[in-house]
Amino acid sequence: MTITAARMAAVDRNAAALDVSTKQLMESSGHALARAVRDVAAPGDSVAVVAGRGNNGGDAFVAARFLDADFDVSVSLLGRPETITTDIARENWDALRAAEVDAERVLDSTALDLGDPDVVLDGVLGTGVTGAPREPERSAIVAANEADAAVVSVDVPSGMDADTGDVADVAVDADRVVTFHDLKPGLVGRDDVTVADIGIPDAAETFVGPGDLLSLERDPTAHKGDFGRVMVIGGGPYTGAPALCAQAALRAGADLAYVACPAAIAGEVQGYAADLIVESYEGERLRPRHVDDLLAAAADRDVVVIGPGLGGATDTLDAVRDFLAGYDGTAVVDADALQVVPEVETDATLVCTPHQGELVKMGGPRVDDWEERAALVAEFAADLDVTLVVKGAYDVVSDGETTRANRTGNPGMTVGGTGDVLAGITGAMASTQEPAQAAAIAAYANGAAGDAVVDEQGYGLLASDLLGAIPTALWGER
Ligand SMILES: NC(=O)C1=CN([C@@H]2O[C@H](COP(=O)(O)OP(=O)(O)OC[C@H]3O[C@@H](n4cnc5c(N)ncnc54)[C@H](O)[C@@H]3O)[C@@H](O)[C@H]2O)[C@H](O)CC1
Ligand SMILES: [K+]
3-class SS at 230? Predict the structure, then answer.
């Protein structure tokens, strides 16, 4: 297994939310680095620590503190201490100064003199690098390569892209790389890499957390349509469900939300919210003869959510089957529509959002313990070749490969309509994220919105109360 720089940052943030701070992780990283240096050096040897201004440098500062008693340690900081980019790296720099470790700042690349060290510890650039190394980092990399020393790199050889292994200009030629938590894709195939466990709890990967929301940052140059046109195919016997679903998609950042529903209820659906684009087909419920027009409309939209309020009439389920058979985009499937999924042949990417009763109706497992359920849900997702979000006290999300659980939400959310809201958020997320990640974020945000409402007013929550709380759940405090 490998982990990308973006995923690493998300896991790091999730760990902090679980009360394992990044500063604790940095301490573990520095300790692992010091052990690696001890492996290649003899007591009394000279160790030149070269540190950039990010957390990669911070790891190196911690290592210097561990090594100072037994080695001749000198630290070069590439820049002014005030420009260190994170508080935790700066605190570790301050700790070196307070302990009177030989630590100098290097303001100009020509002033960098590593001397003639036995070991170079390369903390110049890590997973936070963008593009080719600039000065003074570039000269520091060259100096590390010119030194007649064993070079130990912190996390990745500086100058190398952790995700791709690409070197834009120059990179440190490491004798040993100590990478943290998991192998980075760019390091695959090298024999000089050790992976250090730095104490990130498994839960930071398993449970969806605030770090998973980091991928939702918006580019300021975004245009209308960049964040998705979501089409809800729902309604007939029920009118509220498709309206809640489509409004939830908008609250979760979709640019446009369409509701395709029977003409008999179109006015009512529109009446719930001026923000919705209601497109009606004749009659009072979905039938197979409507499917061709729906497929044509869906081709222009990013994601379809099918199911909310459709009802379970035989010809409606036939229509759902025909629609999925003809569709090759991304569809979130909810409510009565779920039961046709196991029997349909489709090229579509499906995200299915059953509660446990609906899962059983699909032929899936019923298990009380969430961890046992997670394993079986993963198998069932793989069998069906879909992403499953199984709603419960712990929601389980799996695409058969990656399985996550979500702990947000509360007993107030057993009220009708909260599933329609989840389906709508999932639809919006699926227009910009991979299906399993979209589903994980949606489950987290839906539950967090419910928690915020209950915190504020106590139980007696309505699904419509969730709508206004979705934006803060997604983009509020991180
Ligand atoms: N959970 C973990 O894996 C932990 C990892 N840690 C270490 O943190 C670094 C990543 O730290 P970050 O601060 O995000 O980035 P960097 O230190 O890699 O670099 C940022 C720093 O560099 C500047 N910069 C970016 N690109 C360039 C360039 N082309 N030329 C010059 N300078 C550049 C940028 O402006 C910043 O100042 C990870 O690798 C681990 O080593 C933590 O210890 C916590 C746990
Ligand atoms: K490095």
Answer: strand
- Ligand 1 mean position, distance from CA 58 (Å): 9
What interface predicted TM-score (ipTM) does this complex get? 0.98
Q: Residue 463's closest CA among 450, 472, 475?
A: 450
Ligand 2 centre distance from Cα of residue 193 (Å): 12
Ligand 1 cavity residues, CB under 6 Å:
8, 12, 22, 25-26, 29, 52-59, 85-86, 125-134, 137, 154-155, 180-181
Rg of the chain in Å (alpha carbons): 27
pTM of the complete model: 0.94
**Ligand of minimum distance to the alpha carbon of 179:** 1
CA 235 to chain centre: 32
Gap between the Cα atoms of 188 and 194, Å rounded: 11
Distance (Å) of CA 6 to CA 29, 30, 450, 468: 18, 21, 28, 29
59 is an annotated ligand-binding site residue: yes
- Point out which residues pair with 177 in neighbouring strands: 153, 193
**What's the angle, vertex CA 122, arms to CA 118 and CA 124, rounded to 5?**
145
Residue 415, SS3 per DSSP: coil
Contact indicator for 211, 13 with CB cutoff of 8 Å:
yes
Determine the Cα–Cα distance for residues 386 and 415; give it in Å rounded to an integer: 27
Instruction: Determine whether the annotation assigns residue 79 to a binding site.
Output: no
Matching residue, tokens 């110049």? 124
Question: According to the annotation, is 420 in a ligand binding site?
Answer: yes
pLDDT tens digits, one per residue of 86-98: 999 999 999 999 9
Residue 86 CA: distances (Å) to CA of 23, 57, 91? 10, 10, 9
Is 131 annotated to bind ligand?
yes
The token duo for 211 is: 């770090």
Tokens (6 digits) for 115 = 């001397």
Residue written as token pair 């492996």: 39
The CA 180 to ligand 1 mean position distance, Å, reads 13
Domains of the chain are 5-206 (3.40.50.10260), 210-475 (3.40.1190.20)
Look at residue 478 and tell me whether its pLDDT is greater than 80. no
At 246, list the tokens. Answer: 């489509």
Helix (H, G, I), strand (E, B) or coil at 339: helix
Residue 211's closest CA among 18, 9, 398? 9
CA gap 298, 304 in Å, rounded: 7
- Residue of 8, 155, 179, 197 with the most ligand 1 atoms within 8 Å of its CB, for mutation: 155
Q: How many CB atoms lie within 10 A of CB 85?
A: 14
Angle between helices 87-98 and 22-40 (to 10 degrees): 50
**Can you tell me the mean pLDDT for 226-238?**
94
**Ligand 1 centroid, distance to 59 Cα (angstroms):** 10
